[in-house]
Amino acid sequence: MNEPLLRVEGLKKYFPIRSGLFSRVSGQVKAVDDVSFVVNEGETLGIVGESGCGKSTTGRMLMRLLDPTEGKMQFNGKDMMKLSDSEMRAARRDIQMVFQDPYASLNPRHTVERILMEPLNVHNIGKPEDRKKKVYDLLEIVGLSAYHAKRYPHQFSGGQRQRIGIARALMTNPKLIIADEPVSALDVSIQAQVLNLMQDLQEELNLTYIFIAHDLGVVRHISDRVAVMYLGQMVELTDSETLYDKPLHPYTQALLSAVPVPDPEFEREQVVISGDVPSPANPPSGCRFHTRCPFRMDICDKVVPKFAEVQSGHSVACHLYEESRPQ
Ligand SMILES: Nc1ncnc2c1ncn2[C@@H]1O[C@H](COP(=O)(O)OP(=O)(O)OP(=O)(O)O)[C@@H](O)[C@H]1O
Ligand SMILES: [Mg+2]
Fold it and tell me: By Cβ atoms counted within 10 A, which residue in 170, 185, 281, 288 is the most buried?
């Protein structure tokens, strides 16, 4: 089997909490706490979970916008923590990000042409006259036109602005795109158009996606595999069909209870959880989900469940499945 495009092992990000007159470090927010996964070339890995579970922090570490506290990241066969300057520049071209709010991430004072040109200037890609052509080409590719190049971000609708955000991410011919809630700010009717565009682009350009979202409904169709995060950790990871039809982790089951089922014949077990997500500065002992879990057992607040495969290609971190695990 081919080496995956991206391999993440034991990734952690702890943010210091400072307080008092001298800003002493009084604690840590464990935003991402020991996350491991791989992404294969050409696939889409969805990452879902409630607000604050560490999705964006994971994405920002992969973009090297944030330094990990601990862990390994391997991209395209290379250790991302040990890249030379020129390898680092190449890696920055190869991994691009699409953000939730295209308005906030596009400079309002620049024309679309200038916004799209910028990555080429930064990375010194192509001759100046070719750069303009690339801008026009990409506008067409994302469903806009050359005449949009002279306009400013505020002159576009939300869906069009996200197309510009996608075009900007594509300017450097990246291999991996990290899309952080790319359609969450859009009307439902526009969401489908942008998702379809992303899928078409993936096929045409052989892109690999990490697709971050709050709810499972949005990632279902676009993802090959889906990872579910809770309080800085992955609790379940498998192919999207299995995740939707036979979720194992009680937290995934609860998330899915909130997603409407299109087939009325199909009955999914309803799992309702109560309470709020605990603080990542002071996560519960043992399994972090035990404070909200309807299936809680004696072991759950004492022992951290291992995130491991319990069926082929299906990993879960839950004591309910301890006996299915290969010893
Ligand atoms: N720069 C920072 N300094 C301190 N804490 C941070 C920082 N960035 C994020 N956090 C905290 O880390 C945790 C994870 O945040 P993150 O933004 O990764 O969550 P998320 O899953 O993307 O949430 P959302 O769905 O709301 O976007 C949160 O508790 C957040 O408050
Ligand atoms: Mg986020």
Answer: 288
